Amino acid sequence: MASDYPMYRDRDAEVRxxxxxxxxSGEIRxxxxxxxxxxxxxxxxxxxxxxxxxxPRPISRGDQEAKxxxxxxxxxxxxxxxxxxxxxxxxxxxxxxxxxxxxxxxxLKxxxxxxxxxxxxxxxxxxxxxxxxVERTSRSAEVVLQARASGAPILEHQKVALERAIHALDTLxxxxxxxxxxxxxxxxxxxxxxxxxxxxxxxEAMAREARVxxxxxxxxxxxxxxxxxxxxxxxxxxxAGDMSGREKAGQEMAGMAKSLERDPQVESLLRGRxxxxxxxRGINQSRELARELTRDLGLGxxxxxxx
Length: 307
Hints:
By secondary structure, the chain is mainly alpha-helical. Helix content is about 55%, strand content about 0%.
């Protein structure tokens, strides 16, 4: 059977045979081609077809399912399950193997407790409230003083406004209204400035008066200063023939002398400064300075101070 198939096929010869059978050999010309080796066709091995058709080994259903499952399952690659370790790259500017530097916030733990306002901030808040209270009191006092200066009656709501303003001022700083009164006496212009919203100079003057109020030595200095000023005014008014003005100045000096009875600390300090007060001789410890001053003025009897 194997001899029926040639070892190779000559296609040019087949074309010539076909042309001869059809009577076309004179019309078909084939180019001369170099000799080429034909394609060898091998016959199947004897008994191969029978082996394919008849497999002596029976195939079970389980083997078929296992084979199908194996075909469906993807093949495991050579890198399946491989997890490369990340490469640690040194930070810029740091040498390989060098320990990282400790940051400025490493180990910082913030406290969740709300922060309390600083004393400086609290003081600024109190200062603003005090400045508003000073301005409010100054405006109310200016209204009352203007009405009194013009001879107009002081209305009830004006009195209430002044009383409330003074109460609020003393609530913030006890004795502040007295300090304002003394500052206003020494410089009336401060009241108008504070009433217009420029309370800085008034607050500074009140601070000085507060220091005088708590310091006996400063009160003694203030007493001597005021006494000498009134004494000079009294003499000047006498030379000018203004007896009414002279008497008024003398009454104010007598009031100052009487105030020493309520301030024994200042009286004790002034005993060593009797000459500054116009007394020619020193004051005996057993004698009161207030009596000596009023006797020198000649006003003791009129103020209820007997010798």
